[in-house]
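User: Structure please.
Assistant: Input sequence and predicted structure:
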Amino acid sequence: MHIHGTADRLIPYNGGRGAGVVNGPSVADVDAFWRNADQCGPPAVTTAGPVTTSTAGCADNRAVVGGHQWPGGTTFLERGDPMSQALNATQTFWQFFVDHPGYRN
């Protein structure tokens, strides 16, 4: 699971050099890499308000579902980035593991 905000200044959503030392690929390229590695089909994309979710079904019930702050959290982890309330990452991750029980051991 990859949660990434479009306003992230340290690791830009569209790739390239961020406000820190990172100069990397776009989120779309990272997600495409993992869909390929996990033998996933094309993603289904949905948007609800400010949250866009890209979900791809993968072999062996694996899935690729596409900040420095914990979305929905109440404590700042790193100064400078605003806290997003667009989704609750804790609930989102929990639901992912409920939907993909093969990840639990």
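Helices lie at 27-37, 89-99.
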